[in-house]
Specification:
Helix content: 10-25%
Strand content: 25-35%
Largest sheet: 12 strands, mixed
Radius of gyration: 27 Å
CATH superfamily of the largest domain: Peptidase S8/S53 domain
Number of domains: 3
CATH class of the largest domain: Alpha Beta
Number of strands: 32
Low-confidence stretches: 1-20, 261-271, 438-443
CATH topology of the largest domain: Rossmann fold
Structural class: alpha/beta
Oligomer: single chain
């Protein structure tokens, strides 16, 4: 673990406790370190199952009285999130109930699994060693020892005391050289896997269903760095199924810009919501035990309706609706990313102006990232509004890296993404893309038996939300980026897929790396984009911090002339050095946190 260096040049006034989210580690059986992110402010309180109902209820009420966020996971497990003052009060509860509970800080492993320690260590001794001798030689105080499992040299040691030192003691035992391994007996919140995820070739192409392995957006790698938390994506479309169980926890209150009396009301059962529901699923379907998951599965979706289907299955929209919908998305709903899987028709100055306003004034002046589908007309020119120079125009490729034959291309194309046979959410029951004929599945259109999902969504409409989701991942990782910076990152980090088919070269109209008129800068690369979103040096100077603020760097952070006040929290996240210069002051009601990587 790195040593964090502070260089104190001038006045450093700190009237609050220094809080740490830190990296901790344990050893595996080969001596390699396994790292966890430890969050001190989040505690898991495990109750002894042998405690009485009265004791459990007393502990529960005492924990609630602390005033933090209290969650009952099971009758024997509570999760509490506390500030520094509340943590101090927790210690008195622990002391009073030491025989009935165990408290541990939250740990997160690299695959995002949440774990926490118990008061037990699992260890294996060498064949010629004695377990009691090993523990006594290392001054480990214990309540009990019991053999565990088939191997007679493996034991569970229950510790005495109320301190959260299981990791410390396990590492001490291993480093003594007298045992084979020692680790805390972890509690784990195991994630259930999305059953359709293995078929989402656009996220992780292993060659399934005849695809070319590696033709994907590198989603699993990207999720180690970002999952979209804190970012809002407006799906500007025909509506989203507001009751879909794989979406509803990620849905925010939306906006209907259409004339509701003509069929534009949210949640229509007439099939209106299928297109928007499919796009929303690609962006932010939940990571749960159902169906699929989205590119940015912890982002939030703002459904914005600008169109609806008529009885002839045509999309009906109106320039006023579109303009109003875009305006509400960025101005009233404060969306960070606008995903638009639609286009066509003539250029509209009103629509252009609103798109320009979103890009230049959204996100407090940093600008919204606006993404459009290039169109499905088999054409050598990109549809409007994707043809506008300040939006990201997205074309579609198939699972072998070829441009989809229908995907519009040409001088305005910026990037491509998966757009053929994409698994995603469908409106619940009949009427969506996974349709039925006479209560029987159409044999010409084989799809999932669960009609709440479809594996047949496609077009540049499917490609566009992939890029919108990547933009959400990037902004979640570094929310200080401007819209133009996000666009530059996405284009500069694109994968030059199928160089055997497409020649990439410099183009003055597309300065962010080499480009091709069939596939733009190439296939969007979520992992590389997030990596590029982090600066190696951040100078945080001449600032008064009055709201919770995170400063993130992939190198060092320099601080000077900074005051934290009004109950705000300043978080510094850097793997290098945090250099504190002149006039850094944290007032009594402020907080200061350093995340060690």
């Amino acid at each position: 673990m790195r040593m964090l260096k502070f260089v104190l040049i001038g006045l450093f006034v700190l009237n609050c406790s220094l809080l740490h989210s830190q990296t901790v580690y344990i050893y595996d059986e080969f001596g390699s370190k396994l790292y966890f992110q430890k969050t001190e402010s989040v505690k898991f309180v495990s109750i002894n199952p042998s405690s009485s109902m009265e004791q459990r209820e007393r502990i529960k009420q005492n924990l609630k009285s602390l005033g933090g966020d209290f969650q009952e996971k099971t009758p024997f497990l509570y999760k509490v999130t506390l500030n520094a003052e509340q943590e101090a009060k927790l210690f008195s509860v622990i002391q009073r109930e030491a025989n009935n509970l165990c408290v541990s800080s939250m740990l997160m492993y690299a695959d995002s699994t949440v774990q926490w320690t118990s008061n037990e260590i699992i260890l294996k001794i060498f064949s010629d060693a004695n377990i009691e001798t090993v523990l006594n030689d290392n001054s480990i105080s214990y309540k009990s020892i019991r053999q565990l499992g088939y191997d007679l040299q493996v034991f569970v040691v229950t510790l005495t005391g109320i301190e959260d030192k299981t990791i410390e003691y396990a590492n001490l035992l291993y480093e003594s050289g007298n045992i084979v391994f020692a680790q805390p007996s972890f509690w784990r919140l195991i994630k259930l896997y999305n059953p359709l995820y293995p078929q989402q070739w656009g996220f992780n192409n292993t060659g399934q269903n005849g695809g070319m392995a590696g033709i994907d957006i590198n989603a699993p790698e990207a999720w180690q760095l970002s999952t979209g938390t804190g970012v809002k994506v407006a799906v500007i479309d025909e509506g989203v199924d507001l009751t879909h169980s794989d979406l509803n926890n990620n849905l925010l209150f939306g906006y209907d810009a259409t004339d509701g009396s003509l069929g534009g009301s949210n949640g229509s059962s007439k099939g209106n919501d299928a297109h928007g529901t499919a796009c929303a699923g690609i962006i932010a379907a939940e990571d749960n035990s159902e169906g699929v998951k989205g590119v940015a599965y912890n982002a939030k979706i703002i459904p914005v309706r600008i169109a609806y289907k008529n009885s002839y299955n045509n999309w009906v929209t109106y320039d006023t609706w579109i303009t109003d919908g875009v305006y509400n998305a960025w101005y009233h709903k404060n969306a960070d990313v606008l995903s638009n899987s639609w286009g066509g028709g003539s250029n509209s100055p009103a629509i252009n102006n609103e798109i320009n306003a979103a890009i230049t004034q959204g996100r407090g002046g940093k600008g919204c990232v606006v993404v459009f589908a290039s169109g499905n007309n088999y054409a050598s020119s990109v549809s409007y509004p994707a043809s506008l120079p300040n939006v990201l125009a997205v074309g579609a490729i198939n699972r072998n890296g070829n441009k989809a034959d229908f995907s519009n291309y040409g001088t305005a194309l910026d990037i491509v993404a998966p757009g053929v046979d994409i698994p995603t959410t469908d409106i619940r029951g009949n009427g969506g893309y996974n349709y039925v004929t006479n209560n029987q599945y159409d044999p010409a259109y084989s799809d999932y038996a669960n009609k709440d999902y479809t594996g047949k969504f496609g077009g540049t409409s499917a490609a566009c939300p992939h890029v919108a989701g990547v933009a959400a991942l990037v902004l979640s990782y570094n929310p200080d980026l401007t819209a133009q910076q996000v666009r530059n990152i996405i284009e500069n980090t694109a994968q030059k897929v199928r160089a055997d088919l497409y020649t990439y070269s410099n183009n003055a109209a597309h300065p962010n790396g080499t480009w091709n008129n069939q596939v733009g800068h190439g296939l969007v690369n979520a992992y590389a984009a997030i990596q590029a979103a982090c600066p190696t040096l951040v100078n945080f100077t001449n600032q008064t911090v009055t709201t919770n603020t995170t400063v993130k760097s992939c190198g060092d952070i320099n601080i000077e002339n900074v005051t934290v006040k009004n109950g705000a929290k300043l978080t510094l996240d850097a793997p290098g050095e945090v250099n504190i210069g002149n006039n850094f002051e944290v007032e009594e009601d402020g907080e200061f946190e350093i995340i060690e990587n």
